[in-house]
Design brief:
The chain is of the alpha/beta class. The chain has helices at residues 43-49, 76-89, 102-113, 131-140, 152-163, 186-198, 203-212, 215-218, 240-243, 261-275; strands at 5-11, 14-21, 29-32, 55-58, 95-100, 118-124, 226-231, 251-255. α1 (43-49) links the parallel β3 (29-32) and β4 (55-58). α1 crosses α10. The two termini are 18 Å apart.
């Protein structure tokens, strides 16, 4: 495992925080995390992939330790623009792209709008939402929260973090929506919970932007070599078959995820084969 470092890039609007690892030579890999949380959730992959390449993984705007978006209702394009600004700051002209969940939507937008800057694309675990479901999800899934003196936001954040691994969507707590998987370990839940608390007033903006961005409409337009992959432990794993048909010629594969060292090794090897 390569050592994972932390850094900030300065901009007039504020700082973007990112994690990075690996060799500075060769084509770098930009890694974009899921919502909610931050690049901390990708740390095992950053370190593993950093053994063979340079990896840069920003916290998306309003998540982790990055500045919040300026817009009241930012869209995926605004989150993608922040990635481009970070690349300019780091003098990165070309890169490969990895994105998971919300990060997959940002990666898709970047692949479509800047095709000469991004060579190979990994889209890892993204939901496909029917119009009838979308209105409810936009309204309920990611509520706007504020700290209060009773600390109710703290308890809410813990259950929000945990319940996402028990039900999908998390607010439909019945047997029909039960996720048939084990919970992540307590350390992982704690780390995710802390990252959510950092961005408790802004985490919902990237979520809602992601839900408004249609992967069904946009993924079929990608022209770069693309890998569509879902982890066995992903709550949206059931849509893999549908997602794998979006882009003819894409390499599609279900992988074991990163919950233990064996799974991490297998997933890293699959990503490395594709990127190389």
């Amino acid at each position: 495992m390569a050592q994972v470092h932390r850094a900030f890039a300065d901009f007039p609007e504020g700082q973007i925080h990112y994690r990075h690892a690996g060799n500075a030579l060769g084509r770098p890999l930009i890694m974009l995390h899921a919502s909610p949380g931050s690049s901390l959730m990708l740390k095992p992959l950053i370190g593993a992939l950093g053994e063979t390449r340079r990896v840069i993984a920003p916290d998306t705007l309003g998540n982790g330790d990055s500045r919040p978006p300026e817009q009241e209702q930012p869209e995926i394009a605004d989150y993608a623009q922040a990635v481009l600004a970070l690349m300019d700051s780091l003098q990165i002209e070309q890169a490969d792209l990895y994105g998971t969940h919300t990060g997959a939507r940002i990666a898709t937008h970047l692949a479509l709008t800047k095709p000469t800057q991004f060579n190979r694309i990994i889209l890892d675990g993204f939901g496909l939402y029917a119009p009838d479901d979308l209105e409810e999800i936009l309204t309920v899934y990611a509520p706007h929260k504020q700290p209060d003196q009773l600390g109710t936001h703290v308890m809410w954040a813990w259950h929000f973090c945990r319940d996402q691994f028990i039900y999908f969507p998390w607010f439909k707590k019945d047997s029909e929506h039960r996720v048939p998987l084990d919970l992540p370990d307590a350390d992982y839940l704690h780390d995710k919970f802390v990252e959510i608390l950092k961005s408790i007033t802004t985490y919902h903006k990237s979520y809602r932007a992601a839900f408004r961005y249609s992967m069904g409409e946009n993924v079929p337009n990608i022209t770069q070599p693309t890998m569509i992959t879902f982890a066995q432990t992903d709550m949206v794993r059931p849509v893999f078959e549908q997602a794998s048909k979006l882009l003819p010629g894409a390499h599609c594969e279900v992988l074991p995820g990163i919950r233990d060292q064996s799974a991490l090794r297998a997933t890293t090897e699959a990503f490395t084969r594709f990127l190389d």
